[in-house]
Amino acid sequence: MSKKFETKLVTAGRNKKWTHGVVNPPVQRASTVVFDTVAQKNEATMKRQSHTLFYGRRGTETHFAFQEAMVEIEGGVGCALYPCGAAAITNSILSFVEHGDHILMVDSCYEPTRDFCNIMLKKLGIETTYYEPSIGEGIRDLIRPNTKILFIESPGSYTMEVQDVPTLSRIAHEHDIIVMLDNTWGAGVNFSPFEHGVDISIQAATKYIVGHSDVMLGTAVANEKHWPQLREQSYLLGQCVSPDDAYTALRGMRTLSVRLKQHEQNSIAIAKWLETRPEVDHVRHPALPSCPGHEFFVRDFTGSNGLFSFVMKTSNKAATTALLDTVHHFSMGYSWGGYESLILANEPSSFDNMRTVSNPHFEGTLVRLHIGLENVDDLIEDLERGFAAYNEALQS
């Protein structure tokens, strides 16, 4: 039976073997699973890799329901769970590399991903080469005989560059390189990773899947070739999550489609309003032509969400502080993907540490917004107050 995507989000993971006759899979908490006979224990041991109750760290039926749902939504054959998005990234990489290997990492990656490469992987004797997000076919020139992983994040953190994922994946596979994607922005809804050549799709489910800023959770969905190794290596690294968190994420999934559509509608309205502001140099929203890689967004994505950035014409810390301190509906806070609006700012000098080969060399401050589910008029009025304070500080 075929299902449209909105229907999948409502029905995924609701197999009767997990729900036991109720709408939502119950929260099943367990560390020890007990067996009545040796035969039962032996059977569970043999099937421990295939959604069978064996030991708490292998998961309970609550985890199995969420993992099954993630596979139905994103594709692939299996889903590993982690206590946060950063853990999903680091453990996915660690599951496939060893001393002497080399990885290719996009230069616009999530800052903790960069720190992990520069500190932990370096200590383990694994070398990282950063590449420009728009490199495309040029990625060939960076591949070495010992390159094991090509890591993509599209759009990029803060600067929002959209990458040519099919081209990068095709070239990587020509050299038997594993393609990993941080698909948090796409949320498994707006970008279908396995249709574009990705081997392992990683998400901070903390963001849009949970959707309410109250759970830390990471996922990695793998294709048939790489699922067994990801599953077993992650288990060896001790990764597991609370069944309550898995339940909350599964509940959040049910409204993911309608929430994303509203986030998208609100963010595009505000992005277009920002384009009219005299203080703004340009807006970096993947759905707008001013964003680097917009042509790949149009080709590969089915929609956007609430996260984007804009660049001011000037850089003035006092003025930026005035803007941030004045807005009310926009809170300053890390993460994103919840129902609330957020704001963060980066002065141009910060990219000296955040970039290796593709520093954008902004002249003005970059402001990243997450547009929540509030009324757009209220949010625009809030930003207007912020800009007024910004301009007043510039003149003082």
From TrEMBL:
It is found in: Cytoplasm. The keyword Lyase applies. PROSITE patterns: CYS_MET_METAB_PP. GO terms for biological process: L-cysteine catabolic process to pyruvate; methionine biosynthetic process; transsulfuration. It catalyses: an S-substituted L-cysteine + H2O = a thiol + pyruvate + NH4(+); L,L-cystathionine + H2O = L-homocysteine + pyruvate + NH4(+). The modification N6-(pyridoxal phosphate)lysine is found at K207. Its main location: cytoplasm. Pathway: Amino-acid biosynthesis; L-methionine biosynthesis via de novo pathway; L-homocysteine from L-cystathionine: step 1/1. Its EC number is 4.4.1.13. GO terms for cellular component: cytoplasm. Keywords: Amino-acid biosynthesis, Cytoplasm, Lyase, Methionine biosynthesis, Pyridoxal phosphate. GO terms for molecular function: cysteine-S-conjugate beta-lyase activity; pyridoxal phosphate binding. InterPro entries: Cys/Met-Metab_PyrdxlP-dep_enz, Cys_b_lyase_bac, Cys_met_metab_PP, PyrdxlP-dep_Trfase, PyrdxlP-dep_Trfase_major, PyrdxlP-dep_Trfase_small. Belongs to the trans-sulfuration enzymes family. This is cysteine-S-conjugate beta-lyase.
